[in-house]
Amino acid sequence: MSARPLALPALVAAAAILAGCTSTAASPTDPSAPASAAAPAAPTPGGSIVYGHQQEPACVFGGWIEQSYLSYNVLDSLVALDENHEVVPWLATEWSVSDDQLEWTFTLKEGVRFTDGSELTAEVVAFNFDYWMDGGNGTAAAWLGGYYESAEAVDERTVRISLSRPYPRLADNLTQGYFGIQSKEALESRSDEENCEKPIGSGAFKVQEWNRGENIVLVRNEDYTSWPANAKHEGPAYLEKIDWKFIGDPTTRVATLRSGETDAIYDVPAIDWAPLGSEGYELHRYVTPGRPQQLAFDTVDGPFTDERVRKAFAFASDRKQIVETIGHGVIPYEGNGGVSQATPGYSQKAADWYSYDPEQANQLLDEAGWTGRDAEGYRTKDGERLTVVLPYGAGSIINADGAAILQGIQEQVKAVGFHVELIPVPPSATFAGAYSTPEERDIYPGYWTSVTAGILYINWRQHLPESPNYANSAFLADPELEQIILDANSTVDLEEQNELYRKAQEYIAEHALSIGVYARLSTLAVREGLVDVWQENAQGGPVFHDAYLAG
Amino acid sequence: MTALKDSPAGSPVESAVQATPARARRSRRVRPSVALALAVVGLLGLAVAAPQLLATHDPTAIDFSAALQAPSAEHWFGTDESGRDLYSRVVHGTRESLTIGLGAAALSLALALVLGALAALGGRFVSGTVNRLVEILFAFPTLLFALLLVAILGPSATTQIVAVGVGSAPGYARIVRGQILAARRSGYVEAAIALGHPRSVILRQHVIPNAVRPLVAVFTLCVGQSIVWASGLSFLGLGVAPPSSEWGALLDAGRAYVTHAPWLVVIPGLVIVTLALAATAIGKDIQARLESGDS
What we know:
The complex is a heterodimer. By secondary structure, chain A is α+β, with helices and mostly antiparallel strands. Chain A is built from 19 helices and 25 strands. Chain A has a seven-stranded mixed sheet with strand order 8-9-10-1-11-21-12, covered by helices on one side. Chain A has a four-stranded antiparallel sheet with strand order 4-5-7-6, with helices on one face. A three-stranded antiparallel sheet of chain A has the order 19-13-20. In chain A, helix 4 (about 120-135) packs across helix 5 and helix 12 (about 320-325) packs antiparallel against helix 15. Chain B is mostly helical. Chain B has one domain: MetI-like fold, CATH 1.10.3720.10. Chain B contains 14 helices and no strands. The chains are: A alpha+beta, B mainly alpha. Chains A and B meet through helix 9, helix 12, helix 15 and strand 18 of A and loops of B.
């Protein structure tokens, strides 16, 4: 714990640190990205750009990564994550934790004002914590739940967060966009709709207008003073305006970039990656830490209640080959442990738990009593076909590449006798909660981004009748696994903590509770002449504060 | 095809039904376009009945080493992102595409018959109510109505049949009503009335058969149109579940690769167009023949 940034006294001198960070800031994403090196010395402020994004969320601020991408440019957080996975100052200049690990104290930057003119104070920050916990942000609440007790303003510039149990990774988690700080005055005096569409932060941009179904217009905050320590420059954003356009179709998005209609796009289809690179577009790729795209088995209803059937499914497909082919070398394969390779405390052993072994899959299914075969070659037991239902959020949770990967798995597991029923669920139904009960599905694919392996607690906290956990998509109620993760969450020594997280991943792999498929990526393609767009390090969203138009 | 739906009361069909005897006589010989259309339908019929006779590969077999290959001697229509043979997928998708097309057309015409007969033969209240209902439904664009149904019922082949069938019924209901009204006012019905035949007999023996006969042609047209609508729904991702190779679903899947592997979109698109054209050609021919029989 002593190595954590909270112990760095030098952080008090904010200006010096900012200068230092600016000079050392390397490209946080793709090292092959040529832009920064070739950039002219003095960027000229001004101009506007069009950014083509894939999905349109319901609000600018909220608990979904798509909201985080937006709010990161509008709201400032207490802390940010740099490219070395270190927590660095943002609205907080320094922070410390008590010896018993239960009280976190954050010191705030001075002179920060929200875009409604109100001031950033400790009271405002404390109010934001309570606001998230009271339903203002479900994901923030999921992270803090079980640990957070209260937040109070010690003085004008000092806020104290009290926890019920130690959580040494608290600051790391606060770097995610779900923890953006909003104006208390705005939250209290304006309607929910206003705060949804145009949240008031102290960020580099503010929301000018939202044309639903089309775009969100972000304009520069001329009075910006609170850039994060890992920003590439000090002062307000260079760009005056960002037209954040929603272009759902990937082919169209790429076409708009090529035609010059957009200056940058999000989520580059794997097949367009190499061609765009060779055409001179700057490519950024961020492998999202947290839960990668995994298949969680329904452990309370249907054939996967039998561990042997789950293992058989894990052995039955060459997921690595499928992902590498469909992903054209851009989308990495992810193994079986519950967190992605980009996550601190990742276990390679868990990832490698299952190889492609149809023979073993067949043997396990025989042992599990699925010995019959019907006319179409599917396995049966007591006359019932081994059908497993796999609904997926088409176009929301799973993109076109992902859908092709799922079909590859569907076809391969057919050989050992699984009949996989793929159900593409449209976004409206996905967000309305379709297929959310154990009776409706047998496998559920999904990701959950996170900067730490603490995501395991959110995903594997027991699903119990008295305290359901729908983020536990296996519907598992396993006190042993939960205890390992709880112990990890509160372990102060990070090496020891990682060891426990690895143990949890190996437990998940060993019991085949969920299996990995592919890494969730955040990718960007940026045209030549638009310089210093980068991906923030907590979730891979685009950062436009430092971006400028060259020439 | 779409002109039929977009024009009020399906006027092209009505006008075709009332074609002059001279035109009808000209169409007694099998024109080359109709012969070609029959050949296409025959081929598709074979694809429905015994796809394994036409297909060259297993339609769902994945071969990653052959992903996204252009059309060749080995893969006539090329391959998709998983190396599946597109030609075999098109062949195997015929059954589902035609089932949806025929099912939707049958449902649409059945509904149209009921609504049209009620509108033409019901009392003032029934007729007025049905007419207003049809007009309201008619005001909805078919696709919008179908989307609404898919949103309620969830995507599947059955939903597509219902969505397209119900969505396109109002237009045909207007045609049925027009046919029945025309038959009621015809000379032979007037003669039957003058001869003192009972009302039920006149309806059964004269009005209904004469009103319904032209619908055989309309049905053929409707099949082609339904396939186009259903493909549209699949293209929007609201159709059948993967790995089905229903033609609209093939179009949708190929969309992501349109700049790299255009055959994935162009070929299924051409197949849909070919079937729609064949159905239209046959439908118009039947129409003309029926008309000549009537006159």
